[in-house]
Each structure stands twice: as structure tokens, then as C-alpha cells.
Queue: 3 jobs
Job 1
Amino acid sequence: MQFFDTQLIKLGRSIAVLVLTIVLGAVYVSYYRRSLSPNSREERGQKILPENISAVTEGFSFLQSDQGQAKLEINAKINLGFKDNKNLLESVTVKVFGKDGVHHDTITSQHCEYDQQKEEIVFSGDVVITLSQINNKTSNHKVEPIPNDKITTIHVERIRYLKSGGTAESDGQVIFDRGNIHGKGRGLVYDSNRGSLLLNSDVEIFVEPANSQMSQIQIRCGSLDYNKSSNQMEMRSKVTLTEGDTFMEADEVKALLREEDSSIRRIDAEGKVRSISRDPQVLLQVDAAHVSYFFDSTGRWLNKVIARQDVIARSLDPQIKRDLLANEMEILFRPQSNVIRTLHATGNTVLVFADKKAVAQTVNPNTTPPTAYDCRFGGDCEPGARRLKSPELNAFFRKDGKKLSHVTTKGKSLLEEFPLQSKDDKKLLSALSFVLTYGKDSDQLEKFNAEQQVKVDIFPPSGPVRTSTSDHLEAFFDPKTRQISQLHQFGHFNYKEGAQQAMADDARYSLEDRRLLLEGLPQIRDAASKTSADVIEFHQLQNLLTARGHVRSLFVNQEKKEQTGFFEPGAPVYASAESLEVQTQTGIARYDQKAKLWQDDQVLRATTIYLYRQEKRLVAEKNVSTLLYLESEKSQAGKKDRKLTTVQADRMQYDDLDQKIHYEKSVRMNGSMGTVQSDQLEVFLTSDGNQKSMERMAANGKVKILQPGKTSISDSAEFFQKEKKVILAGGPPRIVDSERGSTSGARLTLFFDDGSIAVEGGPETRSITTQRVSK
């Protein structure tokens, strides 16, 4: 982003020496006009060759003075006398003295004609005007030698002065030089009334380099006009400047000069202004409709440059893309250095930048790059490029004026980062202000900050757009790929991906492994659930969500219809644990460490609880404990009283499709029928109105039923809620009553209402005995 750097400095320097040459030329013509006009009231009306001096064939001299101070001195080797009412001189030398009467400019020519009637003087034949440089160190009217590089000479073949119009004109070629500056043009007009000097056409100016390592400066234009009264010089008709690898062109260039010393105050380039530098250190092209250059009091150093209307600054480096577009651009320079300090761009500012070399080194040639048809692209951007849009942009440079320190924006700003490869995401960052920070020892972007109304949109190759908002944003860049590697958003962070939403005080996103870390009261939600924790992470590559510390979840069943389930329909269900893992594609959630699932007063506790949301299945492992209301009885008032059932086991599984709860390993259930111990227990559910209840229950493996004064033992037991009975089988089954003894058989049926037992014997048993057992 070395905008306008070297080429502007060279242009300012070149125009400075050009103006000096032209201004001195104007001084000459001013002296020349004065030499052809009366210089005092006493001499008014006096002719340049007084009538009382006779023509001679050899030698002629004339000295005009005022109060003893020389004003004009004319010398000629030959005086040809009068011809056609003209005084003719040859081998003429004219000295025009300044106010001090010491310094003078010199005019030499082969011929001189003075027409007194027409008041016209014509110099012809190798006319040479030599302009001296005033030496302020002189004293006592002693003239010191003038260095050659301070002397300006102008060569014309013929020049005519018309006193009536106050103009001096030459139709032929004009050649001028001053030290290492020389040039030419065609046609010279000096208007004494306007104080203007005009080179009519084909103007060319050359500035020879001070050493072999520098290039010649060439300035060309159709015409050049200098106006002394307004201290303004204009170059028109396709003005061009060339210095080595640097080129500038414009339809018109104006230079405004200071009245006190004719130094450059300002230069305006108008109409299709283009600056090009092919210097390997710059490689830049700048286009605009208007460009103004402002100089300091010395006229040597640039203070600032302003470009207006359709401004485009474009890098010509094939390895680096740097395009800046704006309605107006202002560049400020460090004092007396021509080194850029800041750049200010306003009005529809667009900056497109990319490191093509880094892209080539990063992208795997075997992978498919994004194409122009990719919906994530727009405009003239290419893979790996970034596009910044803002109403106002400020660029701050380091002391060398080449490397950037940081860039800021104001107003609604957008930063787009386009994917390097087809598998990569596109990023779109927006806010009311940006700060882009560059490395101290490089021109690479290191950090990006955004403030106020921050929004980040991440567009994957497929799937929903991931959108987040916050008060603040920090982005960090990978030094190899030059792409955004990390995003840090804080202050009212909100995130949305499809139906999933998240919020937190602080969020960090790593683009390499696509991991989003939420801290500061983080919370995630979708249409059916909401979860909070101390820390929440999205691992997008693994399609995994994790939460740690005080995990809390809320599940809302949107279905109001009557149904059977582990919990009542239509009421929220809560979950808690110390950690949570959710497989986002499958919907499997794992609550770990002190896991708890509850609805009102129905509770499931375990070390780990798995929720399979798609399959509508639930699994609990280790230290499983459930508090369920699966039984009910009608009270005297006709209402149903819910009965609490507690179950403990090492593992539990619930399947909504089968409407079955399965417990295994060290199962212990406490309910209205007593305490049931077994290796496995299955509870089959049914619905009664809008409430679920237990239809039947089956226990297997070392079944033991403990009731007051009674113990039942079998290999299996099947409980029937509606009939209030349990069937014992295997072992063989046996019921031990502390008062009545024990009963056994191939199969025993125990009725809970009256405590009766039905016995079914084996092959050797021929009858069924019924025994009354007291309660």
C-alpha cells in the first residue's frame, strides 16, 4: 500500500525545477520589456537610439542610467544606420541591469531592427538570452562569478517586441537550458499587460540526473502558460512526465507559485490523471480525475497530495494484489522528507488486497480451487483475496513511509476474505469501525479489530451460513497463509447456525480446527432445547459440542398430544451435569459426572446419561437412580393418588418406540409392591389420559421381592399393574412368610390386594393349593 509514494515525490521535484526555469524566463522578458520602454519620467518619449547619435560602420554603444545607476547598456559591433525607417545593428549585446545596478541579464543576437514608427523591435539571428542569479552575498557592488548551474539561457532565432500590445513574440523554436535542465518548444509569446509567458506547442523539458544511478526526467506537453500576476503556470494538452520507471500523464497541470520567491505552492493535475511506477520497490499505478500536490514553504517538499473523483490505486506487482478505490484520497507527508505519514480515503472506499505468492505456496496443487462461479465470490476478487469496504479509511505508515503500521475505518465497514480452496469458508466481517494492525518488521497483516455492531458471517461450501454478532472483535492471521486464523468476539456475543443459536460474553473461534469456544455465561439453544454451562465449545470438524462446569439443559416438548414417554408430554424436562458432549449430526448427547434428568418431581440420576434425540432413546450408566410416579390409586374423594417408585441400578435404558425402561446390574426397585432386587428389570409403560403409568414390569436374574414379613425369591418375576399381581417363575420360585412358613412351586402368583398366592406345581404336583396369608 505504498500509494503515490515515489512517483509523487519525483513529480514534485521535476515540476519544481521546471517552474524555476520558466519563472526566470519571465523575469528576463520583464527586463527585456523594460529595456525597450522608458525607465523614468524624464526619459519618457526618448527613443532607444537618440537622434543626435550618428550611425557608424563599426562600434556602437549606448548606456541608459537613472541617478547614476545603470539601467540598460547596448553594444553592437556594427551600426548599419537607417533602412526603411528602421535602425539596424549587428552583433548586438544588451545588458539589462537589476535594481541594484550590479546584476544584469544579457541578450545577444546577430541582428537588431528598431522601427520607431511602429514601435517594434526585432532581434534575429542566434538570439541568446542569459539570465543571471542574484548573489545575496555580494557587497560594495562587487559582482561575484555566477556558477554555471545557476545561469539560465534561452535560444530563439527571432523575437519581436510590439510596444503597442506589450507583447514579445517568436514563432520559431525556443531552446532553453539551466545547469542540468534543458528543453525546447515552438512559439513564444510574452504579454506584458497580463504578465504572462506562453510556449505555444511541442514543449519538452529534460532534467539530467545528478549521478549515474538516477534517471533523466522528461516533461512533455502541448503548451505551457505562465501568468506572473496570478503566480500560476499551466501545462496543457496531454502532459506527461517520465523518469526511468516512473510515468505521469494528465490533460492539464497547473502550478501555483508563491509571490515572494516564485517557489511552488501547489500543483493541480486535471483530467485522466495517471501515475505509473514500474520501480521494483514500488510497482504502482494511480488513476484519478483530479490530483493536487501541496508543498511546504520552501517549495521543495510535499506536505500533502489530494486525489479526487474515481480514484484508483493499483499495485503492478504480479505477486501482490493491492487495489484501492475511493471518491477522494488525501496523503500527508512527514516534514521535509517526502515520506508518506498517513493516507486518508473517503467516499465508497474499496480496498482489495492479496498475497499471490503466499497463496501459491499454501494451496495444494492437487486440490480444486474455487471458481468464478462459486456463489461465495463477487467482483474481481480471486482465491485468498480480501476486500475491505468503508465510507472512510485511514492508513498510517511507519517512519520509512513504505511499510504500514495500521489502517482504520469509520462508518459501516465490511471485510470479506475469500476462500483459498473450494473446501474453505468465506468470511464476511462488518462493524462501525475497523483497525488493521501490521507487523513491525513486515508488511503483513497481523491483527484485526472491530468495534460496535460487529457481525461475522461464515459461508461454508455447503450448509447453513454461520452468523455471529458482538460489541467487539479481534481477528488474528496465519503468517503462512495470510488468512484469518482466529476470531475473538466479546460483549453480548450471539451466534446462529440454522436452527441453533448461542450466546455468551466471550467467544473464540479457531478457523484451522473450526472450534468455537464460549465463556462468560454461555448458552446454546434450538427449537426444542436450551443449555448453559461455564464453558461451551463447538468442534465443527468433529460435529461435536462440549460443555463443562455447571451444565444445565432445558428440553421443551412442543407436542401437546397425548402420548406415552419417560416423562409427561407437554411439560419441560431439565438436565444437569458437570460436562456434556453432543454429536450434532446424530443428536446424541452425553451428560457426564453427576448427571441428572428431571421433570417436576420425577428424577433420573447417574454418573453418565446419554440422550439419543433422533431415536428417542435414553441411556444412563453407573450409580443410576430414578424417582418415578408410575403407579396410582383412587382416593376416597375419587382422585388418583400418585405412588412414588424408585429404582437403582448400574445401567438404565429407555426406548420410546418400545415404551420400555430397561434396568440391569444390581437393580433395586422400591414401590407399592415392596422392594424388588434383580439382575435386570424391564418396565413397560402405557398412557392413561395425559399421564403415563406402568402397564407391567418384568424382573430377571436372582429376583428377590421384599415385603413386610414376606420375602419372595425366583429367577424371574412379572408384575401386572392392572391386576395387582406378580407371577414368579424359575428357581423354583419360593415365598417365605415369617408367620405362615414358605410356599414353592413351578410357578407362583402373588395377589397384592388380598395377599393370596396361587401355586402351579410341576409334573409331580397334581393339585393347586391356595393358602390364606395374613397381612
Note: Residues 5-35 form the longest helix (31 residues).
Job 2
Amino acid sequence: MTTPIASLRQCMKITFPPVMLQLLEEAVKPTPDFTVIATILGFDPVLTATVLALANSPYYGAGQKVTDLNRAATILGTKEILKIALSITYQKHLHEAFEKRGIDFYANWRLIIWSAIAAELLAERLCRDQMDQAYLIALLKDISLLMLVCTDSCTFSCENHGPVLVAMQPGQTGKEHALWNTGHGDLTAQLLADWKIDIPRADCLKHHHEFERLDEFDPLTQCIILATRWSEMELNSPDNPKAVIHFRAMLQRRLSLSQEEAEELVERLASRFQSVLATLGIAEAAPVERFYQHSLRLMQEYHFLASELADVSDGKGDVARIIARHLRWEWGVDEWELTLSVPEYQDWDFFVSTSAEGVRQVPVNDGNDLPWTFASSSRFPIVTGGHALGELRLNRKKLKEEDIRQISLYMRFVSNSYEHYALRQTVLELKAHTLDQLPVGVARLSPKGTVLEVNARLKQFLGTTGDCRGMDLWHTLGEAKDFARDAEWGHFLNDSAMTSLHKIFCLWQGPSNPTDSCVYLAAEKRHWHGREEILLFLEDVSLIAGWEFKALKQGEFLERLVRSMRDAVLTIDAHGRISFASPRVSHLLEKNLFELAKPVASYQGEWGPSILTGAPASVEVALPLVEEFSKTLELVFSPLPKEADGHKHWLVVGRDITAVRRLEEKLKRLALFDGLTGLLNHYQFHVLLEREVQRAKRTDRSIGLMFFDLDNFKAINDTKGHQAGDDVLRTVARILKAGLRKGMDYPCRYGGDEYAIIITEIDTGNLRTLCKRINDAVEEHFQGEVGLSSGVAMLQPGESPAQLLQRADKASYAAKSQGGHRIIWSEEQ
């Protein structure tokens, strides 16, 4: 197909009235003429009324009602009136064209208007004098795709492209070049040029999807690329909330915004976006699921919570208990119903939680007959990639609308993490079980027929209890059972042109064979990992002769399955010797796992064969010899059934978790620590205080609290500057870390120049000594220029965390009132 530019010109002529062309001509002028704009709008009273309605929307915040275009231009400016009019005209006539063809235009319009508003706000930061250009270019960048609904509706229908035409689909660039020898960005630029619309910086139209090359372009083009990506993230990625976190964090860094400034940018964009939709009478699809109504900090918190599911190793019951804990802690929800499945196997588990009984599992037959008691209107699906993985239901009447929105967001992160768990742990366990239960003996042989490796089923069939590696297969198979050497087998070994052997032979009853049996043997020569070898399958077909080929296929399938797995798959004996290694790590065979691998620093348990007793937990290790993986793997141990000789083996699956741990560490630090001082932040202080007070009450051990602010800190900020003040705050933090007991005392930055220290398992005398040591260290370091006004309190019987904090705070205030540079105990006030 050639470039369809002629058809697109005709389609634009049919779709858009002259008003659209006239507005565009004004829009590209450096200084639009309001008189001309007013005359154009005067021909369309409905358009004028809509423009005035949007001008009166909450976003623009007009002090009094705007009743005419002159007043609107005075308040908003001529360019803003022009952008509003152009956007409304664009939407109105394209919607009519799409409606005639049964295609949802609103799904596309949401992305178009979001990207236009976003481009303008980004340009405000990156290229302020080009804000209006950014809006116009982002508004028109996909007009060629939209026109193709008229000219080639079959190719770009919802069925072939997806419901949102303006969202980039996998492989779309190649498809466009195959159809038209160009991309839709070039088509748009050519179409507008033919329409004699001189778009400034038309290159922006051609590159608006090239996010990976962002740094190669000028600031205006960067605004268009970022705005395009932003609209797809916020409005067209419901199953990928982590991508929104990454994008917003990237945007915050790129624009050098503080957390508050970044949130304000999202709020401004969302507010204007919703005002436009409301004025045009467009209902936002699934508004409770939109990411833009949630802050980056909240999304990071829920991602951190849900990531706990990815490390579950004790089945779906453990998943349900973790979700129960999160619902109870975050929203006080104790009563709910939950179903979970593994998509590859379609097995469903049903869990119920009540305030009286906690979490319990209810038996179910299948996913079509679940014993729900909560209404379907209370459902929160667990869905990712179009696959239903489960569902949560609870009583919405007891929750606020904000709680509903937050739970919906949390469950989307749960969907991501649960999918990771279901595809990793559950599937691996089931595959390992299948490998173990397969009724086929499997062996790897050298080109001369000696045994390199056999599975448990084959050893059981051969009746050997020892290590048969290095032995001649036919001796073990035939001669040891009073069966003469087979000539065909010898021919197979010696003839390089003979690549396979398939035969059935019988072993008759005798001293070494208690019953008659017939055996199906299949052997294939292969070149694998740079060496020649023979893969052999053996099955007793005395009773199931009709299934021999099916068994062979099962064995071949399982070999391909293990070979294609990205994880490292091993089996080890009770001493840690590796008896099987998947192809990616085959060079580890015969080595000892516990000598090769070293646990990472966070692992505190014993490392060695003793870990295999009981139910081994997962362990993170460094395994330097695994070249195709990063050096950090998570090893999951699963016991295999005992062999006939009583020996036991374990399945070990090694998963590359380097990227996961890096992200988790970053999110943990964001959630737990103050960015300036590195101390625990205000939120974590309250969490820890609650935990340690409850622990002190349970264990009947004392706990103290030291609360202080810095004397003379404001004077340093005022005279030496905020950077000097920041240095003081960081220095005090270092003094606290050096002078406190690690793991027992918790220093926190409460806010500003206020600090709090939770001090556990300490009596009054030692607490006095510790507080004086901290006070003296600060006084000595700053030579009296900075001091502490400290309040100290010991937890009293029956006292709540809030009451303890209030007493310490009050004592600190008393110390400040008395001139500072002193410690006041709560009991001394």
C-alpha cells in the first residue's frame, strides 16, 4: 500500500468544517487576532457556549461568571481561548466521525487531551516561551491515525489495533512502514503542511513516540515525547502500576522537582483534564482506577506492601494471610472473601476472613462455583495481562470513598506481585512434581554407551542402589540380568550415520529378575553444549504397551521445559553435591552447592547441609560461577521423595533477584528514612513507638523516650544559610548514630530541627547516662554554639504511645523555656 495522503486530505475535508481550519491558521500565528477568533466563533453558537462553559470551570477559577468572549479573553487571554475553541472543535467533529463507524472516540480523546495539557505544563518548566506550541503539537500529533478510521477502518479498527488507536502498540512502527513506507508522525506533518498549517518544529510530530531517544532532542520535542508517554502510563496501563511509579519518579528527577512540586504538577494536570471532560459531558471510564488521583508516595507505599507477596514460599494460604494483614493495618478491614488461582493450571482456592475466626480456607470444586456471600458490587479483581488470577470482595458500606480508591490501587499492585509468585513458585513446584512422577526412566550416556546421569525412575528400574555413572549401560541393563548383549545396540554406538534407536525387548524371569517384563527403549544421539552424547528413555511397557510413544513424548517435553527455563534448576543430595543441573548451569555438576554459594550478609541462619532438615526456607546467595545470571540468586529448596535405596535429594531453584532487591532497597529507604539525615522519618517514628511500647508491655521491660530540638538553629540558618543548617542537622544525626546502641535504640528525625530517640530495655539510671552522653557530645562538637533542649520520659504502666510522646515533648518545651542547653525529665516538671 502506498502513502494514503490523498485519502487523508479528503477525509479531513469531509470531517472538519472551515471553522477548524480557520482556528488552526490563527493558532500557529505568533500573535493570534482576537477579533478574528471572535468572528469565527460567532458562526457557531454551540461552540461559543461550550468555550464559555469551560472558561467558567473550577480549573480557571474566574472570580465571577464569564458571559461573553471579550470577558473570557480578558481573564484567560486570547491564546487560551483559542486553545479551548480548537480542542472542542477537534473533539466534536472527530467524535461524530468515529460514532458513525462504531468506534469509541472518547478512549482516544482522553489520551489526546491529557498529552496536550501535559505538554503545555512540561514546557512551562523546560521551554516556557513555547508552551502554546507544545499544546498545539501534542493535540494534533496523531491526527493522521484518527483520519485513517475513515480511509482504512479495517486495518485500524479496534479489533486489529486495540481500543485506543493513539496508544503505541507493539510492532506498530514496522506495520506502518510496511503499509505506507512511513510512520504516522510523518503522515501528520505532511497532512498539516498540505493543509497549509505551518506547525512550528514539525519534527516534534515525527518523534513523539521515541521515548528511548529522549535526550537526543531539543526541549520542545522532549515535552511532546514525555507528554505522549505520560498519557499512555496514566490512562492506558491499568495492569502496570509500577510503570507509573517509575515514570513519575523519572519525571520528578528530570524536572528537578521536590516531592511536593511533583504532586502539584500532577494535580494541576488532572484538574484541568477533568474540567475539560466534565464540560464536554464525557464520563471518565473507571475513574476509581485512574492513577492520577493517587500521589507517588502512596503508590510507592502500596508497591512496597504488595511486593511482600512475591517472596511467598508457603502456598496461597500465605498470600491470603499477608493480604489480610495489609487490609487490617491500612484500612481496619477484617471481613472479606478472596479467591486465588494459578492461571496455567486453573486451580482455585477460596479464603474467608472474619473478625472472630481470622483467615480460613473453604473447599471449592472449581472457579465457576465459588461460595461468595458478598455482593459482586464489592469486588476488587486480581487481573494482569488480561488473565483473571483472583478476586477480593468486602463490605463497601463500612468504607469511605477514599478507602475504596486506595484499596483498588493496592489490589492492582497485589495483581502484579501475585502474578510473579504464581508464575514462579507454584509453577516450579508443579513442574518439579511432574518431573519426579513421570513414569519414564531417563539417562544421559557418553558416545561409547557409559552412564553419565540417570534419573530416580531409571535407577529404580535397573534395581541399583549405588552410583552407576561410568558404568556400561548394556551391562547394567542386560548382562547383569542374564540377558545377552544386543547386537543392534552395538551397531547404534559404532555407526555415526545411525542417529536414533527405538526397540522393545523383554527380560525374562530369572534369578535377578523376579517377574517377566518388556521394556521400550528409545535412544537419540545429539550434540549438546559442544559435546556428543546420547539421550536415552526407558519404560516398562509390560502392562501399558499402548502408551509407549506417549511416554516418550512426555520425556522429550520435560527436557525442553527444563532447557528453556530462565531460572537455574539443580538437584542436590544430603551433602550438597549437585547431581543434576539445568543446561544453563550444567558446569556446576558434581560440585558442592554449599561450598560454591555464599549467603548474602542479611542471612543469619546456618549455611550447610543442616539447612535441608525440616522445611528449608529460601536463601539469597552469591554464586560467582553462574555466568548467565547475576551474582545474587534466591535459592528455593524443595525436598524430593526418597529413592528406593533410602537416599534423599532436594530440588533447588535459583532465581535472579538483583533488580528486585535494588528496587526494594530504594523503596524501603524512601518509605523509612529521612532523606537529609538518614535517620528514621516521622512516619516510621510513630510506627516504631507503637511497636516498642506494645513489646515493652508484653515483656514487662522498660522503655524510654528522649525528645529534643536544637538550640540556636534558627540563628545559624538566618546568618550562615540553609546549607549550613543542613550540615548541622546531618552532624547531629551522625552523633546520634555513633552514641546509641544498634538494634536497641532508634534515632528519628521528627521534623525540622526536632529529633526523637526510642530507647528500649533500659532503666532510669542508664537512661540518664545515655541522654547526658548525647547532650555532651553535641555541646562539645559545636562548642556551645548548638545545644539541645531535651525532654526525657520513661514509659509508665498503662500509658499509651501518644501519652509517652506528649510527656517527653512537654519536658522538651520546658527545657527550651528555661534557656535551653539542658535535659528536663518529665517527672521534674
Note: The two ends are 88 Å apart (CA to CA).
Job 3
Amino acid sequence: MVRNQKKYSKAETLQWLKPRLRNSFIEDLFVFTVDEWNKKEGDILDKACSLFSSGRLIVRSSSRSEDHEARSGAGCFHSESDIPVSRNAVRTAVHKVIESYKKMNADNRDDQVFIQPYTKHILMSGVVFTRQIETNAPYYVINYDERSGKTDTVTAGRDGTIEYISHFAEIPVDSRWRRLIKAVREIESLFRDQILDIEFAITARQGVVIFQVRPLAANYRLPVPDNTFVKHLLKDMTKKFRRFSQREPHLAGGSTVFGDMPDWNPSEIIGGRPNTLDYSIYSFIVTDEVWHEARSSLGYYDVYPAELMVSFGKKPYIDARASFNSFTPADIPFELREKLLHYYLDKLKAHPELQDKVEFEVLWTCYDFSTSEKVRDLKKHGFSQKETAAFLGSLKELTNNILRKFAEITDYDLKQVYYLTDRRNRIMDFYNRQEKTPWNSFYTAYNILQNCKRFGTFPFSRQARLAFIAKNFLISMKDRGFITDEFYHEFLGSIRTVASKLNDDFYRLQKGSLLKEDFIRDYGHLRAGTYDITSLRYDSSPDLFSARCPARVTRRSQTHFTMTAAMLRELSRLMKENGLHGDGSDIIAMMRSAIENREYTKFEFTRSLSDALELIAEAGRMLGFGRDEICHADFPTIMKFRNPEHGDLRYAKKIIRQSIDRHRKEREWYDAIILPPVIAREQDFYFVKPYDAAPNFITRKSVEGAVMTFDEIKRAGSENIKRSILLLENADPGFDWIFTRTPRGIITKYGGVASHMSIRCAEFGIPAAIGCGEVIYNSLKKARNVKLDCIKRIVKPLLHY
């Protein structure tokens, strides 16, 4: 530890701190050097057993190689804990510590060993960093264990929950954090301008016990953000939250909650901190207006003019109040909608881990075979029998209208998608005959995206809603015991989407029965990151077909799904019993069609989006901007230059450069801000606790294997992918090529039970944990091997590998 330019050992630092601390406690220490041990082992053992005559002991390392500002040596040396007070036990423990110095080539006669009482009655133990480890952001990062009662589970990497507390937070309500933060701030005051790594425990008797204080060496060379400016950013975000939480006259709900996954899943589709262009195009073609226009056309409440997505600190969030209003039947009274919104929002606040499952675990968006039973929960929350019956009746009527018009809706949507394809081809043919200028490229991109909104986003949004309803029916059939879990997965595995065709075509390509140019014509527009202009398309990705990444694809054998005549009759009886339109054959056909058409409409929708991104990239190139620059410009700014009156090249470059620089700078600012997945109150900006998400497990398989991250996937050959469990932050249709490599399993940070990736994994029978959340995902990133057990619903690192 560095203090006033002099280097102190771990033990010396604790000795120096012990009499100075008022808000925490350090156990008594007995310190000696390796040289003293070698010369006076017997005397040291006598003194140790005399000083600590009862209880249990811990013998700890204190090498001169530890606790430097530039390198920590943390975890390099041995400590022996929970040993009895006896000469033999202490002798053995000391020898183990000294031996660990030799193994690390740190054998120094001035190295120390120290002995302390082993702390008992531990309620919580862990580590506090006084700044965030990757960015030096001004947060107390608390990694703690409150289950085991041991002192080393966090430091050994065996357990731990993480919480972030801003340096600018008011006194925590939680008494544990109040005591801990008070203790940490006192230690900080004694080590001015140093970023600290503090090991602690909270006990039933002594309060906060300090085990170690050292520099956070990993942050030694990182710049330190301006605290005053970070405080200002947080204050602005809380003001923005307060403004958006005010009553909206056309919406039920007195306030709102923001989440990064409740609806249209922005964290899954564009990422947790997307580039500005990704975010602004997603807003333009999806979340500004089309999302609610499509939904209200099916009989849901029209929330116009509500925008769905809001950005805090460059992180996209969904306005749950707007979303949840749009999921209520249009014909229910406003007073009933108001009560429903309070119920829904309160449930999300109490269970933020359900935010990616709201349509199945929080809301009732349609009537299925379990609705009448599950909706009884409303009675426990002040809903009268009359209100509950009215809500059920509206849900049933909405669902029946959709079932009655299902063929008509689907036919209309598929015609719209066909029209989208025809229009896009005409637009591109016209563009290819024009002079290539930035203005023509921007104009054509705008034209394609406007058509995409009307003829792509709208039908895709409706088909996605129908697919959610289909999934609700399928899950309720399982909940009612009508079908088994195996039957459920068989049905999903029997569905054939565009990904199945891609896999089959890749197989034909490898066998020589399909030309490469024909494959590229159909799939060349896909990219790993549908909205990310910096991610190359398949037709621009040489590794997709290179010898270094060979295609060894086997033809996919489709799961056979059959429903007997007796089952269909029973399903028809169930439909009639619930007052639902159609019979067993109708609902099975509807479920299959909805899920398949959702994927088809999304596939065609992404083709237009991908072409527009290429046109923007081409315009950027002509203006002197690479993809890694134009991705920071906002869409409204660059679209100013789609018209001839803005034909001044220098002016265009200047304005677009200003947009790029401004958004880049904002991104740097917000790197110093840590935000939660769900924001329900102002203090959530200051006290950030990532929740333990409940992953959506796909298939009933169990696998173990090496982890491969997306960056590694891009560099790997197909055989490596085939042996690996893939770890992806988010996944969209651009990742469909990985299914041609038949990975052992797939784990994603973001994603819902009915998301694109869930459907793909079910279709291909690949075990997956979709949407495992930040806590689980970050623990898996550090692992070399992972166990993914979809039957037992377990995903965890394998420490023994």
C-alpha cells in the first residue's frame, strides 16, 4: 500500500489503520517476517498461542509483492483460515503461506506473515471498490455474500452479489450499507486520491470489520472522471425521469417505470449502450409511432401519441406505462384501466426480473386456457367481481375477434410485406440508374425506411403480437396439463422458419447444389446486429465462406409433431368450454402460422433496413466518414441532407461532423454512469442493484462445454463453434448463421421467452438460456466452461475445469 510515497505491506497498513478507525474495526494482529520465523520459530509460536489463547485463527500473507498501486498481487499468496490455537496448526499454516511466496518467486526475507483471530458471527462479507473497475466511475462497487457466513467466498470467486452506490447518493436507507459506506468514506479520507480495494465483513457484534485495504491496481492508469460533471449528469437524469413520470391525460397510471426489456426489447435488439444511429433509426421505424398503430389495429387501446422508447445516459428504456396501456382492450372503462395499470406497474416494481416476461408473467394481453384462473389474483388487489368479469369479457372478445379475423389479418400483412419487397426493388433499381451522390444515397435510404415503417414494421409488429398470443395458448395448454413439457418442445421444434431454410440452403451450398451468388441473393443482407452499420453484412463477410471458417453443416432433421384425433377433439372441447372461436385444428394451425410468419415478416423487414444502412454508409464514405464514424451521427441530422437545397458538401460535412463529435462526447460522458435494468424511482439512479434474472430455458437438454464469446465466434472455425456454448449479449436475425454451425448451446444476456433467439433455439433443438441478465452473464464471461441444464433450469460456471 502506498501512503505518503512510502510503500507499506498489507499488515503494516492494517496496523496503521487500526487505531485511526472509528466507524469500523480491525482484528488484533501479530506480525513477523520470514527472516524472523526462520530464526525464532519456537518463540513466535509461543507468542502466537499466548496472544490468541482461545477461539480460531487465520494466518495471512503479507508479501512485499502485494498491494502496489501498479500491481496488486491479489490472490497470489496463500492464507490459512479457521484453524485452532495450537503450535502444530499454526506452524503448518505459516509454512504454507511462506511456501506460496516461493512458488510465486517472491521469496523475500522481509516478507511478512501475520496472525489474527478468525472473525465469527458474519452476516455479510465481501469487497468494496471505491470506483468502478473498468472506467473509474464514481461508484462504490460492493461485491458481497450474505449467505455463507464465510469471509472468502467473494474473493475466491465462488459467490457474490453486486450493488453499485453512487458517490453522490444520499445516506442509504438500508442500515447495512449505511454503516459500510460510512466506514469506507472514513478510510478514503485517510488515503487521499487513492482508489481502494477494501475487504470487509459485517458481523452481529463488531459491525463493519476490515480485513484488507489496498490500491485498486487495475485502475492505476485509467483517467478519473470529473466528479462534479458526473453529479450534474445524474441530476439531469433524475429530472428527466421526474418529467416523464408525470401524469399523461390520455394514459392510465399516475407514474411510470422504465425497463430495458418490457416491450420491443431494445437491449436485445440494439444493445444496452447502442450507437446513436442504431438508436435513432430504431426510434424512427419502430418505437415512435408504428408500434402502437399496429397494436391498436388489433383491438387494443390506442395510446397515441405515446413514444415507447426513452434514453437515459445513452441506454434505451421502454416506458412501461405507455406499453402496458397499449396491451389493454380498447373497450374497457378508463377507471378499470387505471386500476389495471397500478396493478401491473406495482408488480413490475416488486419483480423487476420479470421485465422480459411481462406478457406472460405480469400482464394479461389475451384470453387463453389459464386466464380465468390466473386473473383471480386481481381480487386480492381490490378488484371487484364485476370489474374482474368485465375485464375477462373484454379480453375474451378481443381474442375472439383476432381468432375470427386471423386469416384476414395474416393475408393482409403478407401482402404488405410483398408490397414492401416490390417497392424496395423498384427504389433500388431507380437509385442504381442515378448519379451517385451523398444526397441521392440519403434520399433513397429515407425512402426505403419510410416504406419499411408502413409495409414492414406494421405487419411485422402485428404478426409478432399474434405470435405472442400463440405462445400464450401453447403455454396455457401445458399449464392446464393438456400437453406435456415434451409435447410443448416437440411442437416448437416442428416449426419451420426462414432459419430452417437458411440452414438447408447452407447445406446445399456446401454440397455444391446451390450457387454462392444465389445464397447471397437470399441471405446476403443479414448482419450480426440488425441496426449496427459497423457490422458487415453476410455479402461483405469473407470469413463466412472462407477455408478458415469451413461450412460443415448437416441437414437439419425436423422434429415430427403429431396430434391425434382424440387430442384434437379434446382441444376442441377445451376451446368451446372457454367460449373461444374455432376448434382444435384451428388453434394449432394458428399457433404454427403465427410463429412462422413472425419470423418471415421480420426477415423481410430486416432486408429493407439493411439496404438503408448500406446507403447511409455509402453516403458517409462519399462525405469522408467511415462506418465507425457515421454510426455516431443521429438519423434526423443526416436526413437533412437528402434534399438538393442542402447540396453544399462542406456544410454537410460540418453539420454531420458536429453530430458525430457531440454524440461521441456524450458517450464518453455516460461511460461514467452505471444504470439499472429497471428504473422505478429517482434513487434507482444512485443505488444500482442488477437483479438475478430468471433465464428462459429452451429444450429439455443438459450440456457442458467451453464458453465462446461473440468476438471469439467471429475469429473461430466452425468446428470450434460446434464444440462450444456461445455467449452473446444480444441476438437478432443477423446471428442466424451460427445455427449452421450447430453450437452445443447458446446463452444470451438479453431476450424473452418469445424472442427471435428463443424461437430459433427451439426450432433447432439447441439448449439455451435466453435472457440470463447482467449478474449471471458477467459471471459466465469470466468462466472457461459452463454447465447449461435446461431440465433443472441451471446455468452456471464449472469451477472444476
Note: The CA atoms of residues 509 and 515 lie 6 Å apart.
